[in-house]
Amino acid sequence: MALRKKFRSLLPKSKQRSSQEDEDISQHLEPVYKYKEDEREFANDPAADAEVIASIEQIYFSDDSFDSSKYELEKLSAEWDPDRVDEKRDTLRRQLQSVSKKVSDLVLENHSAYVKELQRVMELKKSLQTANVICANGRRQLSQAKTDFTVASLSILAKHRKRLQLISLMRSLHTIKTLQRTDIRLREMMEEEDYPGAIQLCLECQKAASTFKHFTCISELNSKLQDTLEMIEEQLDHALCKTCSNFDTHHYDKVQTAYRLLGKTQTAMDQLHMHFTSAIHNTAFTMVLGYIELCSGNEGINFQKMPYRDLCGNVTVEMYIPCLVDLCKALWEVMKSYHKTIEWHEKFDPATQPVNASETEGGSSANVEANLNRMYIKKKLEHGLTRIWQDVQQKVKTYLLGTDLAYFKFDDFLNVLNLINRLMEIGEEFCGSKSEGLQDSIRQQSANYFKNYHRARMDELRMFLENEAWELCPVRSSFSILNLQEFKSLKKSAIQVDVTKEETNSPLDSPKHQNQELGYFVKYGTHGNPFEVQIEEEEGEDVMAANGYESDDAIQDDENDNEDDSDDSDVPEELKLEYVDEQTGEQPTNKFTTRSRKKSDKPYTKSPPPIVTNTTLNVLRFFGKYMQMMRVLKSIAFDVTICMSQLFDYYLFAVYSFFVSNSNDNSTRVLGSRLTTSLKRIQDNLIQQTAIPGMPSPTTPEDKIKLPYPHLSPVVDMTDLNRLFGLSERIVATESLLFLAQQFQFLQPHLEAMIPASKKPFLQQFYSQTIMVASELRTPVYRSVATKAIDFEDMIQMMANVKWDIKEIMSQHSAYVDWLLEELQVFDLRVQDVARRVPLPQPVYYILWEHIIRLCNWTFVEGFATAKKCSNEGRALMQLDFQQFLMKLEKLTDIRPIPDREYVETYIKAFYLAEDDMEQWIRDHREYSSKQLTNLVLSGVGSLFQKKSRQKLVQVIEEIDKLRR
Question: Fewer CB within 10 A of the end CB, N or C, for the chain?
Fold first, then answer.
């Protein structure tokens, strides 16, 4: 109403409106909330409200004395326009609504603060009322004391107050004196390494000093205590550094407790890892530097300022392995200390122990900080495992690559591999790392070393083979590769496998089982070092036989031999003689003592002792060393396997070239297809091609080894008939090769376990195409003896002189049969003589006789084919001669059935065939030569045929001969 009246007073009287108009104006000036339709228009639009408030003129916000109504009316007094008044009224109403809404929002927003402030005012009011009561009581009591107490009483009270002040002063002085003496006690505690006690005492002194800081002497003491605390932190850091190389649980516990009192557990973790990194670097540098300074000839060189990489390159070959051992020992101590540090934090550190759920739910700042510390320490320690192992690995890798190991002795290089392999096993146990850096470095060194080593071994093998006399090396009957010193690890592993199989059913918590599962950090956690040089007593090799090779005369006969003896009571007496001269009836004499030998007197041995040579033993030792390298470094296992196969390949090719390819008896014709393929592969891959005159010499890649063609030693005599053209040397060479193949076959599962699965097909192919076919070399080697042991050309000449066109049946066989039987007996005696010097395996004996018998039968057919004329009586003589030969042959050898017996008998029977059957017989029996078939047609039996029939049969033979070509 006041606003309305004021509004009316400002209008001129001439322009005053009627009462009805005044009522309308008053309605427009009512509060905004009365106009519902306008409220809907501006409600819930903060952006519009803000824009409206921003449009209010600044003068409205000047001060409390500003009259807004007068200001607006004065603006309208100059010019009166109803529309403009309505527009201005709407604007002011909208601004008023926005301001009212803003004020309401601010009131609601600050309501809680208003309530709190109101409560504080009420409490202040109560406190003032209480203070008023206290002051009133105090004044009343002072007024009473003024009337009741005397001067003497007040003097007593004053002295009592002074006494209390002096007591307080004495206590303060006593505390100050104690604080001043604290420095001495702190030094004593530091000498005793009681870091937690020293820090606790220092902190208490600082707290006490803050209480008496109004004293001048205390302010100086406070700064001194701060310096002492900093000195304690420095010594504490030095004590923390000591734990990196020699961890002590009690010492480390005191250090961590001290850092916990300082509130610097995270800082301690950071410092600890810095110290471990420095310890690794300083340990490696100091160790290598110490060995370099021991070497003579280094005077005047300052190695202290030399980088670690260059320092490693100055280690001499003699000091290399001892330095590597000590380096690994020192780095092991650092790793062991870190491992124990982690164990301590897992078991004893309160900061890393799990917090109860109730404490965690509390959400206090102390619990939050404890959780942060626990997570930080755990993550820091886990990350430190990999970081420390990488530092250790890098130091050892740098040391390895600093020296060229290509010319080290094998045992020394193997020792290096064992050390690095053990270090990699420790790294895998330490942090689960595969040690790629160490593997790359050792692979690089091993590949370079093994390439040179294998080339030297191949040259050494060639030298051994070309100087080998192929004499028997007497070894025990039970000899195998496991008896050699180089295979002792393989023997131990085989024993361990057997023990493991026996203990499969044993409980898992048995002591043996627990010892096998102990890791390096458990086994050497308290004492010892995994890199200690363990001097093992070398087991002596007991491989040589005491009395050398014993003759087979001492071997007892088998029980079934007597059963095989046939009764010869019905055999004529002349057939029982080894040889009887038809002209004189006397037995010839020669250097061999002729004697009748029973079948039980067998020159061969069914189970001969191992037949080896010195070269064979050397190759086996090579195998053992190669497998040692494969065991410690599996990354080059396949390359080593290839090199082992090359050793065997060259040995096989040397035996072939010595006793087969150099022979002039066409023994190579009996080579099998698999053996021929293997020999060709070996020659292409391992044997240097002979340079052709006028042509450049063939070049060999550096990574591919090729050796010259091997040559037999001149001490080996291959021309002596009495020694059967070096039969003993052939036996030793061939059977030693087969023994080598047998031992290689024993190694197959071990080789397969070491090489990758993708490379196993190569190994299987090598065994199937080379190892398994090595026994086929027996056939061509011993055939060379059989072809030259008897002069079959003389026999053919003797058979050519026999008259086959006789007219009566003979009861006496031809002389060439006795000659052949005598030659066979001499051959048998020579074989027995060889068997007394070297073991004669049963397969070798059978192969020799099989070849000799096949050659005899072939000679029979070839001799029969020389007959120009043959009668029926002559055919009977042929049968008599061959039957006499067979009867005597069965006395000389126990080979059953006689090889190629049907070959001769079928040819003799062909003389009896009719004309109609002869053509078909010729087509069915192509094992005979064209000469033999032609002679069969044109000889005595052919005279029964017509001329056209003979020509037709000859044409058939020519056709067959063309097909053979």
Answer: C
- Report, in this order, helix, strand and coil percent for the chain, each rounded to 5: 70, 0, 30
> CA-to-CA distance for 941 and 874, rounded, in angstroms?
11
Q: Among residues 952, 731, 926, which one has the least CA distance to residue 836?
A: 731
Six token digits for residue 240: 């923390």
Rounded-to-integer distance, Cα 326 and Cα 44, Å: 84
End-to-end Cα separation, the chain, in angstroms: 146
Token pair in block for residue 684: 């292409």
Q: How far apart are CA 186 and CA 179, in angstroms?
A: 11
Interacting residues of 589 by C-beta distance below 8 A, sequence separation 6+ = none
Q: Which residues of 722-735 are buried (b: 16+ CB within 10 A; e: fewer)?
A: ebbbbbbbbbbbbb
- The verdict on whether omega for the bond into residue 897 sits within 30 degrees of 0, i.e. cis, is yes
pLDDT of residue 617: 93
Residue 942 pLDDT level (bands cut at 50, 70, 90): very low
Q: What is the pLDDT of residue 619?
A: 93
CA–CA separation, 860 vs 792, rounded Å?
10
Distance of alpha carbon 314 from alpha carbon 298, whole angstroms: 9
Structure token digits, residue 390: 């990488």
Contact 482, 620 (CB under 8 A): no
Half-sphere exposure for 436 (CA within 13 Å, toward CB): 1
Torsion of CA 68, 70, 72, 76, to 10 degrees: 180
Reported as type and span, the H/E element at residue 255 is: helix 249-262
Looking at this protein, which amino acid is placed at residue 447? Answer: A
* Degrees, nearest 5: CA angle 221-225-229: 175
- Write the single-letter amino acid at 648: F
Pull the structure tokens for residue 415: 């020792």
Mark out the alpha helices in 192-248 (DSSP H runs): 195-211, 216-242
Exposed e or buried b for every residue in 492-517, given b needs 16+ CB within 10 A? eeeeeeeeeeeeeeeeeeeeeeeeee
Count of CB atoms situated within 10 Å of the CB of 821: 23
Name 605's bridge partners: 841
What are the pLDDT digits (tens) for 832-857?
888 888 888 888 989 899 999 999 99
Residue % of the chain over a pLDDT of 90: 15
Q: How far apart are CA 172 and CA 598, in angstroms?
A: 128
CB 911, CB 875: distance < 8 Å: yes
Distance CA 863, CA 801 (A): 10
Which residue's structure tokens are 């403009």?
84
Q: Is the dihedral of CA 885, 886, 888, 892 positive or negative?
A: positive
Q: How far is CA 501 from the centre of its chain?
A: 24
Report the pLDDT value the prediction gives residue 142, as an integer from 0 to 100.
83
The mean-pLDDT minimum among 277-281, 695-699, 795-799 falls in 695-699
Among candidates 503, 486, 283, which has minimal Cα distance to 396?
283
How buried is 805 (Cβ within 10 angstroms: 0-12 exposed, 13-18 middle, 19+ buried)?
middle
Distance CA 574, CA 552 (A): 30
Q: Which two tokens stand for residue 522?
A: 């458990």
> Is 805 strand, coil or helix?
coil
Pick from 281, 389, 377: which is nearest to 339 by CA? 389
Residue 642 CA, chain-centre distance (Å), reads 19
pLDDT digits (tens, 9 = 90+) for 214-242: 566 666 666 666 777 777 778 888 888 88
| CA dihedral sign of residues 857, 863, 866, 869 | negative
Cα gap 803→811, rounded to integer Å: 15
Cβ–Cβ under 8 Å, residues 737 and 652: yes
Q: Which residues contact 233 (CB under 8 A, 6 or more apart)?
A: 262
Which amino acid is present at 14?
S
d(CA 288, CA 326): 9
CA dihedral 783→785→790→792, nearest 10 degrees, is 40
